[in-house]
Amino acid sequence: MAVLGLRDTDEGDWDKVRVMQQNGIAEHLRNRLLLNIISAAFIIAAAWGQNNLYYLAGWGVVLLGSLYYILRDFEVIDLNGRFAKSRERMKKTALSGIAQGLIWSAPVLLFVGTEPSWSFLTVWTAMGLLMAGSALLLYAMPLATVIFISVICLAGIAKFVLAGQLLMAGAIATYGITIGAACVANAKSYLQFRFSEEGSDEQGEVVSLLLREFEESSADWLWQLNSSRRVVHASSRLAAALGREPEDIEGRALVELFAGDAWETGNLPSSLHDLAEKLKRRESFSNMIVRVSINGTGRWWELSASPKLDENGAFLGFRGVASDVTEKRESSEKIAHMARFDTLTGLPNRLQVNEALAKSLENAQQWRGRCGFMMIDLDRFKSVNDTLGHLVGDRLLAHVSQRLTSLMSDNELCGRLGGDEFAVVVRDASDRSYVERLANKIIESLSRPYLVDQHKLYIGASIGTATGPRDGQTVEMLMRNSDLALYRSKDGGGGQAKAYEPRLHVYAEERRVMEIALRDALDNKEFSLNYQPVVSAGTDGVVGFEALLRWHNPHFGHVSPAKFIPIAEEARLIYQIGEWVLQQACQEAMKWPGSVKVAVNVSADQLTNPSFITSVVSALQDSGLAPQRLEIEVTESIFLHEGTGAVDTLEEILALGIGLSLDDFGTGYSSLGYLRKTRFSTIKVDRSFVQGAAKNVAESLAIIRAVVAMADSLGMQTTAEGAETQEEVDMIKSLGCTKIQGYFYGRPMLAEDAAKLFAFPQLHAEMPRLSPECVKREAS
Fold this sequence. Notes:
The protein is an alpha/beta fold and 780 residues long.
């Protein structure tokens, strides 16, 4: 009822609401007149020739007169106008709706019949258009619109009811109710929108007022100078800020007050020189930052001022404001520094490195020179974080940054890219060997031991280099190509520098394609296992086999494990592949005598998987193999993952009754303390020591004797790897190793060939003198 204007609520200024409605009507007044004229043209065209022309002419004159009256009489009441007239205007508009409805009812009652015809359709189409258009254009004043529509609909209903066409009368009533309801809904939405708009305007005025008040009070101190640029009318707040009395300030030059002790020496900051120049030229300035000395302490002030002129244009001096922005300035400088420097090491960050490389590359292209870029990655740094924690790792990075900085000259910029990655931009690399020499110096320096929190740490560095613009004409290309060279360096074992070569893209693409193929290798049944025998040093009988994974791909052929295992680990495929190896090895071992074991190599990534123990138990249960016949082989690098729970997993393996073998002992990073913590059943001596012992190398002999003696005292067995000759076998036996593995007893063989060794006892007994080829021949 309030929207229609029939009743006002106690809340709100409804006079203002009515004015809004009046203004809404006025906005669409011309469209409303146009709609009436178009509808009248339709009706006249439909009734022409079928009705008395005088009636049509008279109706048209009345319609035009009413429209002219509306156009002349309707006035827009301003929001600041007389609201008392709004109620009268509402009544007047409602009466106008009644009059218009009666005028437009005439064609329905007089000019058209009730039977379908061309004129019937045209007239009612025009009437429907008129009512719908009125609901859309006159929604701001819904009462007049609803009355207008109701009068027309009542006329049509009455005519069709008298003609006995109740269905048509119902259709007109339904249409009128729908149009009227839509008009009221639009009116409500319109008022809500105008209220929101008015509220936003009021909020904007409040915000503007608050901003003006803030701007007026933001200046901490006022200052005023005379035509000689000396302070007059010094405020107490300015005096307090300068640490002086007001009488000590008046009559003094402003620059002198700001300079402090530097005034006598004349060694003024550049900002004060700029201020003096502005005052001398009588120029206005705003938000000028100057360095101020207050009792020997440096501060930053922000000044704004404009010259004062009298009515004749004569210069009287300056009037301005000042505020202390020291904290803001220092905070901005700190933020700017943090945006360009690494917080941990203090070295330039990636942003500054990119800028320096871009500038060096631009100079190299302009002057036909060369620039260089190095990507540095620390070797074995992850093991420091895993074993000693990130705090020690961060301190180690600080030491690394110090060593790198000490090697840099004016020709280089060293920065940290993130993590354990650093970069060096060589501005002038015209000497091709210069980058190589610098890279070797960096590797040599970073490889020296570090002392961090009483820990003696050893790491290394791998470097990839690229030269611009030869290896890349953009920063992105140079960084990408040096990263490819770095990857090649890491792939070669680390501790070396590699320069970019175009063929590295081929290696990278091959690795990418190989990873894709590796993801489908299990489903395509491309993996197989070979088994290398392990014999007893005392009886020369086979006591076990080491399961060795092989991959044959239709595209790559036979791929070396040294090539695809790192890719599987990096792509996180090693767990699925390792689970398959466990299942296959356990099932194959069930075909051997009950005293023969199978050894399966397991990577550190597998051990850190929470589901590893479950996969081991599943492999034993599915195959029926006794836990004592399975041996898990790990390398010393497993101890670098102590913080990840890998060592705890080893304890769970031992608790299941599964054997545990430590491979490549003495070549990694472990200490004897781990042998005390973890109960290994076997220690495998690396083949490099076996070959050295066969050549009577004193160090190799001493290492093997020490390992054997230690293993015996701890109740462990020893397996010597890589035995290929009779001399090596005799040496191993004489040193006391309990088991031997190597080509002398057999190369890795297929599962069928391994099973055939036990089908013929005489072959098993003569293992030292028979190769797998001989075994095949004898078995056949």
